[in-house]
Structure formats: structure tokens, C-alpha cells
Amino acid sequence: MAKQIQMFDDRLTEQGEALLAVCASVKGTKQLYVTDQRILLHEIKGIVSDETSIHLTSISSINISNKLVYSTIGIVSTGYKAIIDDVPAHIALEIKSGIENLKTMNKTVSAPSTKKEKDMYEVADEIRELKELLEDELITHEEFESKKKQLLGI
After folding, report:
1. How confident is the model over 2-50, as pLDDT tens digits?
2. Which of 1, 65, 62, 66 is nearest to 27 (CA)?
3. Rg, C-alpha atoms of the chain
4. H/E element holding 21?
5. Per DSSP, which regions of 26-120 are E strands?
6. What is the pTM of this model?
7. Rounded to an integer, what distance in angstroms lies between the CA atom of residue 99 and that of residue 104?
């Protein structure tokens, strides 16, 4: 696995991306690579492998379902769903949080400097994301309420 990580890191560095996180299923046949621009799902199928790339901006949701100490991460994007099973639960939460933070940072960086009014669907999506952070206990109830009021313009 260490050689695979190094291979991906070398390839991504050449493309101008930074490898930020890696997780794998218990058997190691599925690996999830998180970069500053996209998510790569690498699956080993016998002697061949399959790779799926999902750009951060196209990710609509990240879902985690727990099974005792292991979790399944489901990343839903426009027209595709990437699933990686049997990831230690605490690592799944860290990966989800990291991807959500990257998406938030990318929105901030790519946001135009002129202030425009947000579409009601964008506001609703941001509130849903905040609600997930609250449920995962990554933000406090007060932080959630404060940001929600800010998004709603209250």
C-alpha cells in the first residue's frame, strides 16, 4: 500500500495537486485518495485496477453508514456515486470532515469579489451541510445557529 500511495503522490504532484489524505478498505482493494482538487477512488480487481475521479465542485453529498467499528463512505456527485466499504469509523468521519472543509475553502476562494445575493437553493444546501457538521459534533449548536442566521440574512 505504501508503494501505491507514493505512486499516486508522485503522479498528482506532477499534475499540480497535493495529496491530502488516503483511506482504504480493510482488505485494501479499494482506496480513496483526497487531493486539494478532487477525490480518486482506486479499486483493485484481480490483476487490473479501476480509477474514478470526482472533482470537489461536483460532490453533492458525503454519507457515512456505520457498522460497529467500520463504516461505509458514499460520495455522491453529478451522475456518479463512489462507495468504499469497511473503513474504520473514526477515519471515515475525518475524511468526510476534510472533504467538506475543502469544498468550503474552494467555494470561498472561487467566490467572486463582488457580493451577489445567494440563490435560495444554495442557502438551503449550506444549511444542510452545517446541520451535518452539527450532527457529527464538529461545530457547536451556537455556531450552527449563528451561521444559519447569517446565511438567512436574519
Report:
1. 777 777 677 777 777 888 878 888 777 888 888 888 888 888 887 877 8
2. 1
3. 17
4. strand 19-24
5. 30-35, 38-45, 48-55, 59-67, 70-77, 80-88
6. 0.60
7. 9
